[in-house]
Description:
about 425 residues, alpha+beta, eight-stranded antiparallel beta sheet, two-stranded antiparallel sheet, 12 helices
Amino acid sequence: MRxxxxxxxxxxxxxxxxxxxxxPASTAPPATPSTSDSSSQESSCVTDPEAxxxxxxxxxxxxxxxxxxASQIDAAAAASFAVAASPGAIVFVQTPDGTFSKxxxxxxxxxxxxxxxxMFQRVGSVTKTFTVTLVLQLAEEGALSLDDPIGTYIDGxxxxxxxxxxxLSDMTSGVASYTFDDTWLQAFMGDPGRVxxxxxxxxxxxxxxxxxxxxxxxxxxxxxxxxxGQVVEKVTGQDVATVFAERIFxxxxxxxxxxxxxxxxFPEPHPRGYTLQSPTATPEDPTDATDWNPSWGxxxxxxxxxxxxxxxxxRALGTGQGLxxxxxxxxxxxxxxxxxxxxxxxxxxxxxxxxxxxxxxxNSSVFYDTSSDSTVITMTNSDIASGDCAQSPxxxxxxxxxxxxxxxxxxxxxxxxxxxxxxxPAPKQ
Length: 429
């Protein structure tokens, strides 16, 4: 049985993550029930999407928030960080009351260098939100339609005359993720520094058998979003890094966000990132994956950013302001199946909309609360799960009695509780 279109699929489908947030060789975490055609469920996750879009929000409150609220957020973040399997963490929170930012732990355990709030990080599948935003912008302009079949633009995709850009965006296409391919996995593990061409990734994904009839079920697939990146390049006649910069980075003033292209280089300052998702890693000695090349994620997962940029971006993503017109944003905010789930390039739970990102060594959570105009960004220099994990590998000092969770997600959940609107993720296994 395929996974329903639930919040479980917000993480990047990395080499070992299959299609969700799970660890090496694991299956997806338990998910909330859904019909086989989840798109038929009425979207109710965002209580009043028209109000979210129509509200002429004031400029974000950038002054420090009240000491009482800051203390509550700090306590929640610190308590969650204490049971998260990460050397360090970066937290940004913005509410109508003001902004909070703080770093916890260390950026480099070998030197003891502290984590700082200005550090850059690989944001993994948060990239998907950018890519699908470009597709929605092009649809607004009439350059394409979400209901166009992918075969109009790209040859060789199974069911290419039926699979639509919409289904690629909401992960109901049935096109398998190239990360399911054992040969690809072995090649990636054998040479994490390898540069992958997007067409290589697509060729691997489309060679796998379709998982189901298009539009009938859900399965989180990196191939979907890489295909969308190719569509963006074909329609615009530009490389996607340029399109990101011209249509999103520039207009929103995201000066700390970049597409590294084929490079594994990182802007300074940045932390070292640690993972157990490596054949040489052990619970005693996680692998430093900082310099692994992210090109295998391309438009599904290779962007770099920082907490301050993500704070600006998450609010724009949730409201549409600065990114999409009202009609497109309404379509996006009503694309979630039922009371929670995955829609057009982002997910929703309890009114929080956004995405998590997970690459070996790094984990990010980027969410906006549509009910309170609040934004929470959490970034960790580890993707290692902690808690009662049945399948995901954990460290030796792993805390028991905790729900299994990736580190950035754990900290986000704690902060959301302190803000009075708890985010409810599906448990990692």
